[in-house]
Write a structure and sequence with these properties.
alpha/beta; elongated; 187 residues; 8 helices; 14% strand; 5-stranded mixed sheet
Amino acid sequence: NRDAVKNAGFIVLCVRPKDIKKVVHEIKSMVNKSQLIISVAACVPLSLLNAYFEKENILQIIRIIPNIPVAFNRGVIGWIRNERVNPKLLNDFRKLFSSLGLLIQCKNDEGLEKLSLVAGCGIGYVAYFMNNLAKVAQKYGFNEEEALKIAQTVFSGTIQQLQIANQTPEALISAVSTKGGITEEVL
């Protein structure tokens, strides 16, 4: 870790929260004010990162919380920074991490944690709903593979409709719901 930090422009701390203090202790003497520290350690607030490095008056630190779809460049990456991050490094950070999905700057650690609840847990909520939609399709006689493809296509088609038509979910619900119809009844 110490060798990796020596010549790095960006130092990405991607460790479990319980290991962050140990890793910071190992590298902190090698870190300098021209480097950008990016922490991915969940539940480790910016103030604690500053304190661990004991150089809070000079180090540039950004804290991020990504969600799983960053693996496909479709993630949501919440982030906050300390006031010392210079504009050039901030711009470089934005260029690099925006390639992984949507960057959302939060005001503070609390906002970052709330975004994590929405974007991180939201994946589970969507998958739960898709699973239930596939189960309904199976009840109607479609095999498991067809049912899953139907649910996935309904979701991806809905997303495309919302994005291309620049519709809100509420407007789309209204567009597909007929007064007294099945969609209105289910909703």
